[in-house]
Amino acid sequence: MANVPTVGDDTLIGTPDGDSINGLAGSDSIAGRDGDDTLTGGLGNDTLNGANGFDRLLGNDGDDVLAGGADNDTLVGGNGNDRLIGGEGDDNLQGGGGNDTIFAGNGFNIASGGDGDDKIYGGLDNDRLSGGNGNDFLSGGFGNDSLTGGEGNDTLTAGDDNDLLTAGGGNDLLVGGRGTDKLTGGAGADVFRFLTVDDSGVGAGVRDTILDFAIGQDKIDLRYVRAQASGITFVTQGANVIVQIDLDGDASADMEIQVARGAGLSLGDFLL
Predict the structure, then answer these.
(1) What pLDDT is stored for residue 4 in this prediction?
(2) Rounded distance between C-alpha atoms, residue 36 and residue 15, angstroms
(3) pLDDT at 2 exceeding the cut of 60
(4) Average pLDDT over residues 135-145
(5) In a domain, 237, yes or no
(6) pTM of the predicted model, to two decimals?
(7) In which domain, by residue range, is 173 found?
């Protein structure tokens, strides 16, 4: 290691081998370089960079910035408002206490916010994002992602592929995104929002599905696609109701939404 840690503000640089570096107290900058490193920030607002190798980064107390770099890394923010960046590889990112911001990066990542109002962004592959307690914002990005809100009033946005959104307790906002998505609001008065006509296709296997719509409590928001009441029809298929939406007045559906166990669904359940 190039420097010796102190209780002050240190800049510490590892070797090409696997290092274990503890910054102790102070606001430290620690870089692991090559090798499988364990970097611990300690007290203070620290910046940890794993670089190459299978690294473990521990922020502990303070508002820390953790960047995993290449390969499969584990990043744990600890207490404080932390910023975690996965980078390349299949990473495990844990925000901990505080209002954290997490970028999963490339690879098949697992990211959890923990307590606090967190913002979590998926990357290019199939990610598992979990908000935990607090009012969280989760965005899937690319890939077939799983987003779980937990307690609090959460916002879950699906992204470009086939995503699974599960909000949990609280009054949540679920945004379908492109792809064939499955949306579960959980307890509370939830809103299921669709921003464009491409957010839910026409036909089985293409349209989005709302799995637990609570009639008279939840809402389906079609204001952004400019749907009109006259263009909405309901088709019952077994226990499901298919909402067909004609946006251009040609008497054919431009988008569809499947509502599981949707008997009794009416225009009063929509925001138009």
Answers:
(1) 78
(2) 10
(3) no
(4) 96
(5) no
(6) 0.94
(7) 77-229
- Give the model's pLDDT for residue 167: 97
Residue 46 belongs to a domain: no
* In the predicted structure, residue 1 carries a pLDDT above the cut 50: no
Q: Are strands 219-221 and 208-210 parallel, antiparallel or unpaired?
A: unpaired
Distance CA 78, CA 157 (A): 26
Identify whether the C-beta of residue 46 lies closer than 8 Å to the C-beta of residue 25.
no
Please give the backbone phi and psi of residue 197, each rounded to the nearest 5 degrees, phi first. -65, -25
Is 240 contained in some domain? no
- Distance, CA of 123 to CA of 109 (rounded, Å): 8
The position carrying tokens 């794993």 is: 50
**CA 83 and chain centroid, separation:** 14
* Residue 24 structure tokens: 């102790």
The burial class, CB within 10 Å (0-12 / 13-18 / 19+), for 4 is: exposed
pLDDT band at 7 (very low <50, low <70, confident <90, very high): confident
| pLDDT(228) > 80 | yes
CA angle 189, 192, 197 (to 5 degrees): 165
- In whole angstroms, give the CA distance from residue 233 to residue 216: 18
Reference 176, options 261, 236, 243, 253; nearest CA is 243
For the chain, the domain total comes to 1
Q: Is 56 helix (H, G, I), strand (E, B) or coil?
A: strand
Distance separating alpha carbons of residues 26 and 75, to the nearest angstrom: 20
In this structure, is residue 39 part of a structural domain?
Answer: no
Closest residue by Cα to residue 27 from 39, 38, 37, 41: 41
Residue 177 has pLDDT above 70, yes or no: yes
